[in-house]
Structure formats: C-alpha cells, structure tokens
Amino acid sequence: MSQRFFPDGMPPPLADAISLPWWEAAAEHRLVVQRCTSCETTRHPPAPVCPECRSADSDWNELSGRGQVYTYTIVHRPIAAGQELPFVIAVIALEGAGGLRMISNLVEVKPDRIEIGLAVELVWEDMSPDLAIPRFRPVER
Amino acid sequence: MTQRHAQLVGVGESQYTRWGKIGDVTEHALACQAIQRAVADAGLSLDDVDGLASFAEDRNEAVFLAAELGLPALRFANMVWMPGGGGGCAAVSNAAMAVETGQAEVVVVYRSLCQGQFFRFGSAGVDASAPAPANPKPPTVQQANSLLLASLGFAMPFGLLMAAAAYALPTRRHMHLYGTTSKQLGMLAVTFREHASRNPRAVMGGRPMTLEDHQASPMIADPHRLFDCCLESDGACAVVVTTAERARDLAARPIEILASEQGAPKGYAFGPFSNANVADEIYATGGGEEMAKRLWAKAGLGPADVDVAQLYDHFTGCVLMQLEDYGFCERGEGGSFIESGALSWHGGSLPTNTHGGSLSEAYIHGLNHVVEGVRALRGDSTSPVENAEVCLVTSAACVPSSAVLLGRK
Ligand SMILES: [Zn+2]
To answer: Would you call B141 and A129 a contact, using CB atoms and an 8 Å cutoff?
Structure first.
C-alpha cells in the first residue's frame, strides 16, 4: 500500500459508464484524460461528446502527472471522520493535457509554502485494492 | 431593447431565523405563509393566483402548495433548471414570461428553506463527526445514479463538498491576479452588516461587526473566513408578478421588470464544484460578464443607470467579482471599488444589499434580494436610497446565474 493521506470515510467516487474508465485507469495508477480522436481536444471530467467538434469518438491519453497549482483553498472543516486539518483542495493545471485542469488535493506540503504556480507532481493514494485517488505534492527541488 | 410588460406587485416573507430554528412549522407551511403575505401585500386574493414558480430543486412542489392554498386553477407551475440560488431571478423572469404571454395572470414566485428539517447544504449527507463504523467496507467506486452525482464525482473524493471551499477557488485566483485582499472582502461584509442593523427582519440585525471582527473570525476555507460566508437560515419569501393591466388597478406602486437574463458560459456546469475547466479568462470572474452585456442591451441601460443593487452574496468574493462582471468597475478593481465605500446605503455610489443580503439578513437562496429590490424602488427599504429608479438584482455568481433589472415609472 502507498502512503495514506485521507481517511477511509472520505466521500467515494461516484461514477457512471462514461466516467468509470477514468477510475479504472486510476486504480492501475494511470492518470488519464479523455481525448477526442476526431479533433484531439482533451476534456475533463469525461463526457459523451467532444465540446469542440461534437464527435462521440474518444480515447484515453495518459499524462505525466506533473503540473502547476492553478488555484487552491486551505480547508479547516473536516469532510470525513478522523481527517487531519487543515487539508488542501487545489486545481491543478496538468502538463501535456492541452491546458486542462483537474480538482485534487495537495499533500506533503506546509500550507505556507503553497502558492499559485507551484510545480507539483502526482502521488497516488491507494484507498483500497480497487480505489486509488490521485493527489499532488510539490516537486522536490 | 426588448419591451417588457410584467410588474412586481407584492412581496412577503415569514420570520427569518438561524438555520434549524424553525422546527415547529413545516417548510411548505412557511412557503404558504410567505405566499399569502405577498398576495395580501399586492392587494390580491389567493383566488386571483393562477401560477406558481420556484427554483433550486424546491422540495415544496407547486402542485401541492396550490392544493393547500386552494388556488382555483393552477395554470402555470414552473421551476428553473439551474443549480441553487442561480435560479431566483430566472424564476421571476419565467413568471414574467408567463403573464406576458397569457399562460397565467398572477404568478407567485416563492422559496422556502428550513435546512434543519432536512440536511445542511454542503454536507451531502456526510457526517464528519460520526464515529467510523466498526467493520467498514473498503472504499471503492460507487454507481452515480444521476448526472449531477457523476459530475460531482470529480470533486467529492477530494473533499470538495462545501460551498465555502468551492467558491474560495476562483476568489483565491482573483487575489493572485489582482492583489485583492481579505480586508477588502471584509469591508464588504461590514457594509452589509451595517445595512442589516437597520433592518428588523435581519437575522444578524442585533450583531454589529467591525473589520477587526471580520479579520478575527475563524478561517473556514482560505481565503473565506466565517464572516465571508453567507448565513444559513430558515425562512420563506415570495413575490407576486402580474400584467401591467392588472397592476394598474392595484393599490401598491408596481415595479416593472425592465429586463431579465440567465445563463452560463461555455463549460460552466456546476461551477467550481464540478468543473475546473472553464476558460482561463473567466475563471476568476463571476461568469456573468456576457450575461450582463445582454441585460444592459435589453434594457437600453448601463451600469451608470443603476441606483441601487441587490447582488447575490453567498460569499464576499463572489460579490466582488459580480461588481466587475456588471461593469460597475474594471476587471480587477473590485477591491478598491469596495474600499471607496461605494456599497454603502448612505452616500455610496452603488448602494448594495440594503437589506443586509445573505451575509446578514437571511439566506433564502437570494429570493429575498428580489423582495428588497421591490422595497428599494417603492421607497420602503429600511436603508432607503432617495429617488431610486433602477435596481439590479442578481442570483448567484461563479455558477449558472440569473439577473433582473427592476424599474419604477
Ligand atoms: Zn473533438
């Protein structure tokens, strides 16, 4: 098991047939984004149709897991029992994803080090054998 | 310019309290009370009402309220398909469309909230204080039984459920881009509290607040301190919309709906809860800039024509971004605009939330802002703006939102 950052009681991912493949890739420690095979626009969260060319054809593009903090909030109220406070929710601008961003968490960082533009890298948190959640931490310098 | 004809002719509300304080009256009984008061204020009878409109997935369904209130015929029952408070002004707009097109003649727009009887927004039913189960099942992906839940499925696993955290994200970026400060946000909250102190209906009426109080209030989701967040309230309010012809015969001065707009920019979905991928240019905005342009064009008016504003204030930063969206100041200058004292009822260039807003009067999903917009133009506000003729009312920001421009002939 990888290092744990959040308790088991965190809200579980809720997925439908469109978004389930994203979580299946995550369980294999692959951070992917959906990519339109017609115009190559990437999108997140997963959706049935490309918002640019409206094609329904897509595949999954694996990312490096590097990125930058686009914005963040340091949260002082727990979401789940036993959660360490404060915790950090961040929007990560993902490298190699055509400007795409995702909501995630920052871990292994002191709150006063966090700033917009901070370079971060992916760290997987295995919540269970079937569930891995992508979090981010500062890139070591 | 698009000619509108619908008029707001009555307003009413129940008592407003802190959330959970109304336990002995059901939420739908409270809705009935607000509707009855608004209809009485209009000088009408419930026998005249043939339409009901609401928003925010209202639990108090119009068909049941119509039966409870004994409406002779419900010709128009309508709910806005937009998240939360974003639908308030849109519900007024729908009521206006109904009376303008003859679908109905007298439509009451209502909203009732008793969160203590159901669940608090932002908790999603999760109780962080409950002990962990003895033999928990290992966490796993679960089936989303709605599009909303599938969409929030990319926010909730990261602990993003609370509105204070979601709206902190664009506000933090606004601070980064433009140097907006917590003190500027605090000045806005202090101004609205001053307005509430003059309003006997306001939940926080007896609780004066200084900038120091704001700065000392606990951090909830940085940069949101407690006093950057709207109240959580129990209460109900309603407004009555009818035709110009009908309004002419009524005792109260009718307030005209000059223009209305609703909308969401491309990719907006549920705003910062669901989707971090709106265009970079609009991420640190209220998302209402294009909507505002359409609103001004429809009315043939501009920001300089607004005498008083009731801006949806779920969080201080979202008000600041609306000031920029609607063109009351340049992009990035919302903070200094607030610092200038512009929002004060007493001598400000744009008296805003003269009732105290959701930050200090009550959180009734912003329909109380429409009520106050009517009062402001009737001259009935407890923080009156002399000779006010045009009032902007907005519903939400940073999520799909709506707005109306109200006018007095
Ligand atoms: Zn495409």
So the answer is: no
